[in-house]
Amino acid sequence: MKITDWLSFKAVPQISAETLNTRLSEGGHNLFLLDVRSHTEWKLSHIPASHCMPVFNIDISQIPKDSRIICICLTAHRSTPIVRQLLRHGYDAYELTGGMRHWWKRHYPTNNHA
């Protein structure tokens, strides 16, 4: 990951919580949910079917190239550099607008393990 991936000079593609929830309720075909928060945060509450890969431990080889990647974090800050990195590698990547905070605010489905 490059230092410029962290700088917010240019917006990244985004998907709203509403749109993602609709897509998931329709089966979530061709979506790969990549949660870049810590394992602890993910265990406490995450979107069902999401995969936890903390921001500093991203293994791009484990991310399917033929899916639309939705990057998720708490507030849509940690996910931004990952979306940039994935776009640079030719992935179809988006950030969940507002992160998990927007998801929770709308009371959309989560798996809670706390």
- Counting DSSP E segments of at least 2 residues, the number of strands comes to 7
The outline comes out as globular
Ends distance: 31 Å
Order of helices and strands: EHEHEEEHEHE
Share of helical residues = 25-40%
Number of helices: 4
Strand order of the largest sheet: 1-6-5-2-4
Average pLDDT metric: 92
Stretches where pLDDT is under 50 for at least 5 consecutive residues are none
What is this entry, summarized?
The chain has 114 residues and is α/β, with parallel strands linked by helices. It is built from 4 helices and 7 strands; from the N terminus they run βαβαβββαβαβ.
Could you walk me through the main structural features you see in this protein, from its secondary elements to its overall organization?
Helix content is 28%, strand content 20%. By secondary structure, it is of the alpha/beta class. The strands form two sheets. Strands 1-6-5-2-4 form a five-stranded parallel sheet. The N and C termini lie far apart (31 Å). The relative contact order is 0.26.
